[in-house]
User: Fold this.
Amino acid sequence: MRRAAVGTVLLMLALGGCNNNDLLVGVDGPAPPENLSAYYYAGSVHLTWDLGVGWNQESFRIYSKRTSDPDYFLIAEVTSCADGSCAYEDRNVLAGQTYDFYVTAVDPQSGVETASDYTVEVAVPQPIPPPVPTEVAATALDHTIYLHWSTASRAASDFSFYRVYLAGSDGTDYLLGETDSEGFLDLLATNGVTFQYYVTAVDDQGHESGASALASGTPRPDYHGEWLYDFTDQPALSGFRFQEDENTTPVVSGTSSDRHFRLEVDNAGWWLVPGPGTEIYPLGFATTALKCGPGADASCVDVTRAPTSGYATQDVSVDPQTSYVMRVRGNDGQTHYAVVRVDLLGFDQNSDALMIFDWAYQLQANNPDLAPGR
Assistant:
């Protein structure tokens, strides 16, 4: 039933509360709020309603009580709405309690209030967030940091998504974005600067976990930390052509006739798919680095020299920490040897599959020594 109250009854509501059935019925009150609804999220009750037909710039008052209490109390007044709808957020709620709400439109001249046709009930749950994300790591790329972490937070049945934060040097933290995948690309990272990050997990009711351990990375320009997307997810960024210097972008479309290979992902695994004129050695080499140069650890393992035979044009399955050797047609039209070492296979914040890898390209035609220089 529609409820209306004169100013005297409203004063009783504000001071001592009034039972819902004690409201006086009025016939000349303002247009009542319509389509009142409420929901709980992240420690607050969110109320929304629409302007009634005939609304004439009246303000609105929100009344609330715990379901177990006899009286409603005035908790707020809303004086502005947008696009025909109004909203209010009640943060003064306690976990484990259930609340009833209704909204009134207030005539500024007479003080008469016309209430919504019904009340809404919202239960406030206990705030139990998902487990804190673990094993957060930062992989430094060129002008980019790739963050990845374990699936531990998914143990919560109500897990919803992650939030990724940049820890500022001044003590201020910045929310970079949200993702439902265990991976995130910070494409705004600057080469030569160290960045620190942490990740939180959020459940479907907005409860946020504590912060993970910090992960740091320093982007740098070189032949390391290249990445390609799966041809199905992002075809324009799935192809690769070896270049003679890093000033020429090696990433090309997966449909480009100039590609040396592209990345494809399916239910059977991750694949290097050779392009026109490219042959791939079908067996990968377990390595610890792309190249073991001066000062490398004694246990460092790389592919120093490419096999000179045994290549094929079939797709090759790839694994992390493994190097793959190719024989490609260079810009001079001759045969060149090249190698890619897969560092990581994962997904970004949009759940698009990607491969992060290092690479080297022999500039001398037909020279199997896998060094980038002459």
DSSP finds one helix and 27 strands in the chain. The longest strand covers residues 335-347. The first helix runs from residue 7 to 15. The chain has a mean pLDDT of 89.
